[in-house]
Amino acid sequence: MDKPIPPPASHGVPPAPAGANAPDSPQQALLREFDHDARSPLSALAAATELLGATDDPALQEEARGVIGRQVRKLNELFAAFRARLALLAHGRSDPPG
Fold first, then answer.
1. In this structure, what DSSP letter does residue 13 have?
2. Residues 48, 64: contact at Cβ < 8 Å?
3. Could you tell me which of 3, 24, 2 has the C-alpha nearest to residue 14?
4. Which of 46, 14, 54, 45 lies closest to 30 in space, CA to CA?
5. pLDDT tens for residues 45-86?
6. How far apart (Å, rounded) are the C-alpha atoms in residues 71 and 41?
7. Cα distances (angstroms) measured from residue 19 to each of 24, 35, 49, 80
8. For burial by CB atoms within 10 Å, which of 4, 26, 45, 65 has the most?
9. pTM above the 0.85 mark?
10. In the chain, how long is the greatest CA-to-CA distance?
11. Could you give the percent of the chain with pLDDT greater than 90?
């Protein structure tokens, strides 16, 4: 069996500002939000992938495939929302129209 997949790291996300009260730029805030929101689906994908390789039980394999499908859909939605928010930032707006 392969080594377990480690949890996602926050590579590429800028560190927190040095000053305790220094606000994030809208881009930094968006990256932090995306990093946070992507962790759950990525962790679920890693666990389901590991389970697929560790069991011969058809029911568990089917459950793992279902988890993978749901989490891929969730990540696709997350990326779509991320791209939409980036487009807003590019036009000088930080929040979606409400």
1. S
2. yes
3. 24
4. 14
5. 999 999 999 999 999 999 999 999 999 999 999 999 999 999
6. 5
7. 10, 21, 40, 32
8. 45
9. no
10. 53
11. 60
Distance CA 80, CA 76 (A): 6
Query: Residue 53 burial (CB < 10 Å; 0-12/13-18/19+)?
Result: exposed
pLDDT band at 35 (very low <50, low <70, confident <90, very high): very high
Short-list 61, 62, 42, CA closest to 53? 61
As given in the structure block, the two tokens for residue 74 are 């969730």
| Cα–Cα distance for residue pair 43/27, rounded to 1 Å | 24
Q: Find where tokens 């946070």 sit.
A: 36
